[in-house]
Structures are given as C-alpha cells and as structure tokens.
Design a protein that fits this description.
The longest helix has 18 residues. The mean pLDDT is about 90. The protein has 5 helices and 5 strands, in the order E-H-E-H-E-H-E-H-E-H. It starts with a strand and ends in an 8-residue tail after the last helix. A 5-stranded parallel β-sheet has the order 1-2-3-4-5. It is of the alpha/beta class.
Length: about 140
C-alpha cells in the first residue's frame, strides 16, 4: 500500500497505474499537527481535496496514516490519535463509504493508538531493537 501526501503525487500515481493497467491501494498521509519535519496533508486540505482524490480511477483510498510527534509519555499523543480517528470518520461521511485502515502508532505509543482506533501500527523497534545510527 502506498502513502500519498498530495494531490500532485496521487495524480502521478494514477497516471502510472493506468499505464500499467493496475489499481493501487493507498493511504492518505496526514501531518496532523503541522510538523515542518514531516510530510502529509494538513487535515483541512485533505478534506478540501478528498473528492478529487477519490475521483482518480486507478487509486483506491483505503484509509489514513500519520506519524505523530514523538513523546516520552504515550498519553501526550492521544489527542493526535483521536483527531485522526475523527478525521477518518469525517472522510467516510464525505465519501459515503468506509475506510478500513487507520495507520498510526509506533513501538512507544501503539497501545494508545489502538485504543483510539488504529488498525495498523509500526512496531519495528520492539521487534528489531533500536536503529544503529550511521557513524556510530
């Protein structure tokens, strides 16, 4: 599944999928709190462009995804996860169809993410340990 963070990228993926006679499942990436270091739609822009995204015939919107701000206490990111669940519900209302996936949460906060509606989490650190930094 591909993550899409702009209408421009979605249009390019749609064109390439059409050339390959394929349909691509996608998650719409949301920058829920506007962090400059992260990619993704601002929530208001996503809502404004949702109909255009949904009209692309070779893309299937399967849900939303986000990477929340890092916090030592997982409860600090609960409001972000709640906002994402509410945004997903709003998108479902606008589309008139369910979005099966909400991808959010990582090793340090996945339990809170699941409590707030995550259907997909990323727990690489729990499985593989901390990343080795280059030059370390």
């Amino acid at each position: 599944m591909q993550s899409v963070d702009s209408l421009h990228l979605a249009e390019e993926l749609n064109q390439r999928a059409d050339q390959a006679a394929r349909t691509l499942p996608i998650l719409l990436e949301v920058n829920a709190v506007g962090e400059a270091s992260k990619f993704g739609y601002p929530p208001e822009q996503l809502l404004a462009e949702l109909a255009q995204l949904n009209a692309l015939p070779r893309l299937e919107i399967h849900g939303l995804m986000t990477v929340p701000p890092w916090a030592l206490d997982p409860e600090k990111v609960r409001p972000v996860f709640r906002q994402m669940r509410e945004l997903k519900e709003r998108c479902e209302q606008l589309l008139g169809a369910p979005l099966p996936h909400l991808s959010m949460g990582m090793t340090g906060d996945f339990e809170v993410a699941i409590e707030e509606g995550a259907t997909m989490v990323r727990i690489g650190t729990a499985l593989f340990g901390e990343r080795v930094k280059a030059g370390a």
